[in-house]
């Protein structure tokens, strides 16, 4: 069997594996609904998503290394490179994401985001920010971990884009904890910027199939906890951006 043929079998086999994992995850969610006699709370859904994402990382052959204090509640801000970021973070700690509403319509990823209780923001409507802010505060008050990608979009990982401050208002009002995270990927048989990062005008399905054809990739996730938080959200955005940059620089040492 020649090498090119074997490589063509790899994404096909993993696609089938991923499809089986999707079915199993939906069965587990149905059992969760039955056990709670209705839609479970976000804490239970966060644990369900964590189990799903840990299994999904095996499909992608992701080797994950985590350093720093892993947050379990409060607000976590992180750089954003790919849909894999969601799998990485959820597999590490149960959490609730804030996401653009377009993700809700993605095949598979959108379904699971909705089931997990993701907070969807209509970015084109400035009037939607107060609603999401209220929902974030309610979830934070319930003791959950809320994950926000304040760059507002994904990138190729070469730099951390400036942070938008519009959704940081709940973080300026203690007692909720505040953490920063940084994700980095490495790939032996390809380009991280072109084949792991999901940005520019990339299309989901071809990108996903190509990624499933990789032998495996390494992911590093580092956390830090902020002790002093600025009461001004614009200043806080700059403060958090500096923390994420510091984590990025520590990876290159």
The assigned CATH architecture is 3-Layer(aba) Sandwich
Helix count, per DSSP?
Answer: 8
Q: How far apart are the termini?
A: 42 Å
Rounded to the nearest angstrom, the radius of gyration is: 18 Å
Structural class: alpha/beta
Main sheet: strand order: 1-7-6-2-5-3-4
Could you report the average pLDDT, rounded to the nearest whole number? 92
Beta-strand content bin: 15-25%
Class in CATH?
A: Alpha Beta
Which range best describes the helical content: under 10%, 10-25%, 25-40%, 40-55%, 55-70% or over 70%? 40-55%
The helix-strand sequence is HHEEHEHEHEEHHEH
Can you walk through the features of this model?
Helix 1 runs antiparallel to helix 2 and helix 1 packs across helix 7. The longest helix is centred in the first third of the chain and has 34 residues. 33% of the residues are buried. The protein is 45% helix and 17% strand. It has a single domain, classed as Glycerol-3-phosphate (1)-acyltransferase (3-Layer(aba) Sandwich), CATH 3.40.1130. The termini are far apart. By secondary structure, it is α/β, with parallel strands linked by helices. The radius of gyration is 18 Å and the shape is globular. Strand 3, helix 4 and strand 4 form a beta-alpha-beta unit.
Please describe the topology of this protein.
Blueprint: H1 3-36, H2 42-59, E1 62-67, E2 74-78, H3 84-92, E3 96-100, H4 109-115, E4 119-121, H5 128-141, E5 145-148, E6 178-187, H6 192-195, H7 204-212, E7 217-225, H8 233-251
Parallel strand pairs: 1-7, 2-5, 2-6, 3-4, 3-5
Antiparallel strand pairs: 6-7
Helix pairs in contact: 1-2, 1-7, 2-3
């Amino acid at each position: 069997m020649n090498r090119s043929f074997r490589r063509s079998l790899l994404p096909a086999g993993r696609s089938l594996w991923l499809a089986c994992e999707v079915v199993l995850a939906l069965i587990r969610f149905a059992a969760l609904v039955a056990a709670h006699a209705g839609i479970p709370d976000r804490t239970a859904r966060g644990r369900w998503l964590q189990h799903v994402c840990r299994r999904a990382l095996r499909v992608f052959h992701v080797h994950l290394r985590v350093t720093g204090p892993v947050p379990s509640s409060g607000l976590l801000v992180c750089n954003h490179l790919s849909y894999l970021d969601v799998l990485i973070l959820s597999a590490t700690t149960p959490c609730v994401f804030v996401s653009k509403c377009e993700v809700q319509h993605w095949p598979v990823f959108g379904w699971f985001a909705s089931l997990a209780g993701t907070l969807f923001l209509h970015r084109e409507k400035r009037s939607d920010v107060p609603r999401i802010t209220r929902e974030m505060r309610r979830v934070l008050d319930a003791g959950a971990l809320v994950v926000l990608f304040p760059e507002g979009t994904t990138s190729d990982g070469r730099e951390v884009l400036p942070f938008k401050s519009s959704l940081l208002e709940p973080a300026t009002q203690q007692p909720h904890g505040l953490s920063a995270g940084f994700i980095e990927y490495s790939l032996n048989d390809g380009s991280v910027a072109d084949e792991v990062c999901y940005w520019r005008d990339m299309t989901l399905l071809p990108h996903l199939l190509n990624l499933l054809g990789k032998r495996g990739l390494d992911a590093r996730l580092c956390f830090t906890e902020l002790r002093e938080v600025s009461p001004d959200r614009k200043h806080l955005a700059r403060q958090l951006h500096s923390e994420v940059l510091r984590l990025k620089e520590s990876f290159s040492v």
